[in-house]
């Protein structure tokens, strides 16, 4: 199959999908009511559309409110109402969506149902609001920051970038964020749960991951002399004081500061997702089992594979896939003409890994991956299955 033929198949299948799903009564009701059900819960949201679409559509900003555990919905409802406007005026051009947490729990934005609902929200915005799937961002403050910390490793392939403000990581692992830009922020005097110190610690953690694998573009702001609340949403984009050297602040108490634009939207809006990064790091213990998809960028694994780690890279120029590390019991590499012009060579540097089969059924694989991912970039025409003994 030529590159042109592969592109034609993917485009044809995506266009058919869009035509069919724009008539889907469930999706239409979700858009009209701004409510998405999943099992026993539902995700409500508020939406604002600012400016005009660019060539590939609008960027999408998903905003998560503060609050968290509560015996009544009042606190989270009021925080949700506030989040409907919190970052909105900083979005000069884009679709701004503020999601209500699905339950009044500490992890209100990261319940098991939350992750497939984010998938549904993104696909609905692409289908009905002309959103560019390569410019989807997620941001959150306080309990919303907790949600960002927990959500992004599970579905980093959906976002171009994320902003976490005033939240706690709860020991989350960030291996999967190699190809997603990340900004983390907290007040210098936000002592509760050590939110302030964890910004410095996670800044170093991301530095170590970057040194090991490349990528992991990130910023970390400790807001000088601020407690839990600080201005990461100033629509005038006025520079704010942040600690100059996070490591020196953490270890030596050095409080020297600089001034910079810390508006979350400033950082996010500069980032564009690359759906075909040259290397993917995938810690499979971070999966969200209720999601429909079983892929992560161009890697895939059966949903029952929920442990192990994969580090896989490819070169379009050399037409080569390299298995650098594989401790999951089985996995797949998907590809299309955006990655390879012909059948790629396979290099296995990891021990006990073997090729099970090469599955080249372009139309069938394209239909399957379109249905699972609802993303034009994650429609593939070839697959190679691997086994780890």
Topology:
Elements: H1 3-21, H2 25-33, E1 35-38, E2 41-50, E3 58-64, H3 74-86, E4 94-99, H4 114-128, E5 131-141, H5 143-155, E6 161-165, E7 181-187, H6 195-213, E8 218-223, E9 240-243, H7 246-252, E10 257-260, H8 264-269, E11 279-283, E12 295-296, E13 299-300, E14 309-315, E15 320-326, E16 330-335, E17 345-348, E18 353-359, H9 362-373, E19 382-388
Parallel strand pairs: 3-4, 3-5, 5-6, 6-7, 7-8, 15-17
Antiparallel strand pairs: 1-2, 2-4, 9-10, 11-14, 12-13, 13-16, 14-15, 16-19, 18-19
Helix pairs in contact: 1-9, 6-7
In short:
By secondary structure, the chain is α/β, with parallel strands linked by helices. It has nine helices and 19 strands.
| Oligomeric nature of the chains | single chain
Annotation field: number of helices:
9
CATH architecture of the largest domain: 3-Layer(aba) Sandwich
What number of structural domains do the residues give? 2
Stretches where pLDDT is under 50 for at least 5 consecutive residues are none
How far apart the termini lie comes to 32 Å
Shape summary: globular
Q: Report strand %.
A: 25-35%
Helix fraction bin: 25-40%
